[in-house]
Amino acid sequence: MTDGIPHGGDVSAAERRFGQPADGWLDLSTGINPQPYPFIAPPAAAWQRLPQQAEMDALNDAAARRYGVADAACVVAAPGSQAILQWLPRLILPTQVTILGPTYGEYAPTWRAGDHGVTTVRELSGATSATIVVLANPNNPDGHRYPPEVLLDLAEGLHGRGGWLIVDEAFADVDPEISLARHAGKPGLILLRSLGKFYGLAGLRLGFALAPADFAARLAAAMGPWAVGGPALAIGSQALNDGAWAAETRDRLALASTRLAGLLRQSGLSLVGGTGLFQLASHPQATKLYAHLGQRGILARAFEGEPQWLRFGLPAARDFARLESALAAFTP
Fold first, then answer.
1. SS3 for 128?
2. Where does 20-167 have alpha helices with state H?
3. What contacts 199, CB < 8 A, 6 or more positions away?
4. Which domains does the chain have, with CATH numbers?
5. pTM for the whole structure
């Protein structure tokens, strides 16, 4: 995490502001599945010896199958997609980068740290002069979706002038039809995937880059040996090989997200957008509502640049009543 950039999930900071809730925190400030993948604990050897190349190969193969990548040589596992974000600006010569925003706050500072010129625009039409275009699909925090055919055309154009389209697909597991993963290896296209959101395993720190094989090899070499720990290799392979769980979870999350959207509407908030893992809402007194919820041990995600916005991750089924009660008690 870059100093000075706020993120969701900082319960300790909320506790310093609001105190310790009697019922514990209901953290809705992230877009993480509240019902994580039920993995089988790795054997003791996964903790005790160095990760094995065969285990890394098995993980990359599992990721290729799950995401629909034709060639596993285009898959690079990393200790979280954030680590990949930190490396990309170091592997590409300094140039002009355009970021589609508002979006995840780490994109701009990581590229600036690599001596790239960075601008942020709200529409793809504003990215015509860039060499690198960075966006999230679906976008965080508003859930905006870019059609695959539009992004493929953009990647082709960028490649033609020596550039790249970098698409963060951290939330694409809930909406796989918009993923470009089946086009992984296409020149000019780099995709990021994460196990933290859909699989509810953010603490595992496991993500992937999907890129042309030659660039994937450069990225893997830059990260060095043993970039992913043994337990993450074992648990990641389990999760990615479990197609039945993924299908069932996608349906369950869609129902829960629809329920959350309905609750926010009936509580007087206007919906801005969302995915199967979060809903972004607007309220003229969002700052007051954020504090009201915090005082009741419920942490939403606020945005300094958009003070009327609050993002709500999915509550577990047992926690909907708690959120509903807190929203009903709010007096604008």
1. coil
2. 45-48, 53-67, 81-91, 107-113, 148-160
3. 33, 36, 37, 173, 239
4. 11-36+245-328 (3.90.1150.10), 45-241 (3.40.640.10)
5. 0.95
Task: Enter the tokens of residue 174.
Answer: 């809930």
Whole-number Å distance between alpha carbons of 141 and 144: 8
CA torsion 195-197-200-204 (nearest 10°) is 40
How do the pLDDT tens digits run along the chain, 332 residues long? 344 567 888 899 999 999 999 889 999 999 999 999 999 999 999 999 999 999 999 999 999 999 999 999 999 999 999 999 999 999 999 999 999 999 999 999 999 999 999 999 999 999 988 999 999 999 999 999 999 999 999 999 999 999 999 999 999 999 999 999 999 999 999 999 999 999 999 999 999 999 999 999 999 999 999 999 999 999 999 999 999 999 999 999 999 999 999 999 999 999 999 999 999 999 999 999 999 999 999 999 999 889 999 999 999 999 999 999 999 999 98
What does DSSP assign to residue 21? Answer: -
How far apart are the two ends of the chain, measured CA to CA in Å?
34
Extended beta strands in the chain, E state: 26-27, 75-78, 96-100, 117-121, 132-136, 164-168, 189-194, 207-210, 270-275, 278-282, 298-299, 301-302, 309-313
The whole-angstrom separation of Cα 154 and Cα 188 is: 9
